[in-house]
Amino acid sequence: MDVRGRLLGKVIGETSHAKIVFLSKTPPRVGQYVLVEYPEGEFVLGMVEQSLSGNPMAPPDAVSMASLERVERFEPQRYLYYKGVARLLAWVDENSLAKGRIEAPKHPPPPLANVYEAGAGVLRLIFAPQTVNEGDDRWVRIGVLANHPDVPVHLDVDMLVSRHLAILAVTGAGKSNTVAILATRIVEKLKGTVLLLDMHSEYGGLSEALSNVNIITPRLNPMALSSHELLQLMNIEPGRAHIQERFARIAWREARKEGLRRPEEFFETMRSKLEALGMQRKLTNTERNSLQAVINKLDDLEERYRGLLFDPTAPIDLEATVKPGYINILSLGGLDEQASDAVVSHYLRRILDERKRWKRSRGEEGYPVPIMIVVEEAHILIPRSRSTLTKYQAARIAREGRKFGVGLCLVSQRPKNIDEDALSQTNNKIILRLVEPNDQKYVQAASETLSDELLELLPSLNVGEAIILGLMLPLPALVKIDKFTYRLQSSDVQASREWGDYAKRRVNEDRLLSDIMMEF
């Protein structure tokens, strides 16, 4: 195995078990992996987190341009030096690395220790174990090391699902591409199951990439709604409108007892129950007003969400909707935020409950396979500053999902607006370009291994480059994400192009009208 590459330089100054500074012959690259030589020919793998360049003839306290111009006559390039700051990560032991065991050093290397570029062989052992260990099928490729493009990077899907994931970046940095690559490869290679909650209907192009894509039109059978979901759709806030909430819950329970199948029957039964309550003489004026408000809100619900709730073919069986072995895309683009919250929380609740049933019944009933749930626009559905139904159900999955094979992936361009508890429960992170300082600090607070040096790198990442951290990868890595070859529907409107297309249509229409008029 090719452990060492070319000699880069030597360790200088005081050293520690965690970090070194080395003088280099060429500029080190941030994210590059190096090998530091210890006595007896042992090596420790390190990652360059800072790259520095200087010249003693141009000191930092120089204050005169004239003095610098005089220095330029003496070939200052001869005195140019390069320094790298590297974090020490793991002993290089082929047997341990092949078994996925990472052991960090506990003592520092000596000063003047040699620093080499890490060889492709040792990096493949760490980041592409399935290419080395035959029969290890829990890995999927996500890209290549940005500074070692000959080394592919694979993620441990078992750890991804059981320890959850966050994909974070500014708009246009490559979030959707990353989601598409990850989802298609989980399904293609591992025959896995993914539910993609598509807030802006931008993932329809996935159906061009593979055949087993299931587009789900949002339809809910009222019999499967929880009381909280119904209250959300009726715009009754639990804990505030107490009397309205009580009447709505009574009607909901009575309708469910009837065992009705058709949506119209369910809501007709609710209305009749509410009207029957209104016939009671003991109601106060306040209660009568609240009861009428509930009936009005039920009418509004039927008018606003007829397409969502009144489809007689809407299935109750979860497996018939979210197909195992497919990328299931729940297209939410036509719903408002309130309805999206109710629909998403409904699916999260039912999936976790059905997976619990499967485990407890030992495969006799419930949802039959583990599933990865991708929540796009997580800052909207799982916000930091307010309660939502999705936020509650996501918290349940974050706490309990690993025991039942339900993984959660939060995707957002506004990390600071995501609920802190939910984000901190994602032990794996794919962080693409992030510019806003508060977003960066918020992500660092929710990450255990994002150092200040890596944090400083986030604003300068190129499109498609990401820092990947967590248990799904043995060590932190700077990765160039593979490019999804099929077109995704961008959420950004190309205003200039649409204006131009509209103007061309108008010109053509005017010409056609002119030709018709000339014939007469």
Give an overview in words.
This protein has helices spanning 65-71, 94-98, 120-127, 157-163, 175-190, 206-209, 227-233, 242-257, 263-278, 285-304, 306-309, 318-321, 337-360, 378-381, 389-404, 420-424, 437-445, 452-457, 495-519, and strands at residues 4-12, 19-24, 33-37, 43-54, 81-91, 114-118, 139-145, 148-156, 165-168, 194-198, 213-216, 327-331, 371-375, 406-412, 428-431, 465-469, 477-481. It is of the alpha/beta class and 520 residues long. It folds into 3 domains: 4-126, no CATH class; 151-219 and 315-481, P-loop containing nucleotide triphosphate hydrolases (Rossmann fold, 3-Layer(aba) Sandwich); 235-308. The protein has an 11-stranded mixed β-sheet. Strands 1-2-5-4-3-6 form a 6-stranded antiparallel beta barrel. α8 packs across α9. The longest helix has 25 residues, at 495-519.
Helix-strand category: alpha/beta
User: Which class of the largest domain in CATH terms?
Assistant: Alpha Beta
With strands numbered from the N-terminus, the spatial order across the biggest sheet is 8-7-17-16-15-9-14-13-10-12-11
- Rg: 29 Å
Give the strand tally: 17
How many angstroms does the end-to-end distance come to? 85 Å
Classified in CATH, the superfamily of the largest domain is P-loop containing nucleotide triphosphate hydrolases
Mean residue pLDDT: 88
Helix content: 25-40%
- CATH domain topology of the largest domain: Rossmann fold
Number of helices: 19
Oligomeric state, counting identical vs distinct chains: single chain
Strand content: 15-25%
CATH architecture of the largest domain: 3-Layer(aba) Sandwich
Contiguous low-pLDDT stretches (5 residues minimum) are none
- Biggest sheet character: 11 strands, mixed
What is the overall silhouette?
elongated
How many domains? 3
